[in-house]
């Protein structure tokens, strides 16, 4: 059996395979509204055979955007645009998920493809909006970033309620699944990490206190969405910085998430800093984050998603066969090859004449299939069926 192409269910949602397109920030929304780019961007992944496509970090408030290009669901007028995105994904055979987020002290940045980091005079001259970010404490993310305004108790309630309202709008837009973004140094993860949270109230200090607000948001969102709708949470399993959040913390946190009705922990890492620090412990390589998904799955007893330079079908399949994760999340590899899932099925001999492809494509490809396979190296620069995991 090829586990990568087994169906898997979370609550009332059945996925046709275990291949997930990770949420990837495209920073291409306008005033929080999705554009035609998003329809094409997400539709091609669904057409490419993935079982689940998750829409990029969608802001719960205007001032919670990471950049001016983040999509949002902070008001009802944004539902129709997102409904079109969800429809395009589902109409092309995949389940539609959405990741919801507040950027916290990393909000108000420059769009990544314009250089990332703090907004410049050039960005402001182009019409980008600037604002002061908020966070758990008055600690800047890195040199050059604005000092965030520490959130009051009333501010925390407002953000919790914004997550709830956004999740409800996601349901109205037709999404099958919601993922809470608690990774990469954004607001909810910054409450977890001692690198960003030095509060002395009930939301700071001990690990239990630092977990309090993210768990409050989780509890509220779980109660707000239908019982049959899965709730995923993306975490940074470690900060990769001494004195920061560690895998042992993530195991404890994952147990608490499971108790609140979370169905899967999406195990990323990193993305958080403090002024003067670097991710000195980080060493990237194929599957470098898989051990975190494995440990959380075993020790917290919750389903996990594996991410991190998983490029080949063989590596993805081995992770699943070894019981290290339940889903495989792909990001850059999907940008490079949106039809990765179909290529993987062919690699394992599950299809042979392009029958799994959209029928509008399949008959064309079947007609020239032998020539395509013979010249795959020339056409694509690499053969996705190879076992070269260092590629």
TrEMBL record:
Keyword Nuclease on entry: no
Stretches assigned to coiled coil: none
Keyword Flavoprotein: yes
Gene3D superfamilies xref list: Aldolase class I (3.20.20.70)
Cofactor(s) required for function per UniProt: FMN
Keywords, ordered alphabetically: Flavoprotein, FMN, NADP, Oxidoreductase
Residue intervals of the NADH:flavin oxidoreductase/NADH oxidase N-terminal domain: 3-347
Molecular function, one GO term: NADP binding
InterPro entries associated with the record: Aldolase_TIM (IPR013785), OxRdtase_FMN_N (IPR001155), YqjM-like (IPR044152)
Listed CDD domains: OYE_YqiM_FMN (cd02932)
Protein name (database record): NADH:flavin oxidoreductase / NADH oxidase
Organism: Methylobacterium platani
